[in-house]
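Give me the 3D structure for MerR family transcriptional regulator.
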Amino acid sequence: MGYPVGQVSAVAGVTVRTLHHYDRTGLLRPSDRSPAGYRLYSDADLARLQQILFYRELGFPLDEIATILADPQADALARLRARHRRLTEEIHRLQRLVEVAEQAMEVQQTGVRLTPQERFEVFGEIAFDLTYATEADHRWRESDGYRHSMARAATHTKDDWAQLMAEAAAWRARLTAAFDAGEPADGERAMDLAEEHRRHLTRWFTPCPTDMHGRIADDFAADPRAFALLVPPAEQRPGLAPYLRTAVHANAVRQSPPAPTAEPTTGPAAPRPEAAP
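Predicted structure for MerR family transcriptional regulator (277 residues):
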């Protein structure tokens, strides 16, 4: 009993049209026909189809597959080695293209226009997470502050980035020192560090009012990928991101102008009691 073409198509995951093409070219002829003339495939035919699909998946052209299957003496191992070599070369080529694409994406999503070597020299352990950069782009692309920040970042030279990162490293050292010393997050020292960071963002990227700074600090505390852009994992401490968030929000309160005091209201003068006779 043979297998009809529709059943073979469903089991093998190829179209009926493909099986008809294999029949016409002689690559895979069914061993039998039904009384009505329909193709019927034997177990041996299915085994041959499995070989065809194996070689096709590896990228062999159909004429080369036919040569391999037609000649039992054909050096299939040598052909497989050659194909392995070509596939390995293609993988390396595609990996290079992926790296180029990632670098292009990073430039677009971070604004950092430096070569990989310059990036390593400037940023050291600070690494951009493209998943976070992509999400940030989707979240804030309509924000004037985000667009201005990306535009400013794109104008920075290698020397600019080196100065920026040196300032950031010195600030990180003071932040961790305050944290390690047990300074309160809403104390003067921590709030001064928060204000210094806000002014750093304003100087290098975009005007950063306290409400914007608060949203940035919230993101640092909520997403480790964001905080890793500020403090490399090797320098982090448990609780440091929430500590900074508290300091930023406390500083925002400190920076807010005092609410105007209401003028005391004076009603009509109370009648003076008459002097007792």
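Residues 76-110 form the longest helix (35 residues). Let me know if you want a second pass.
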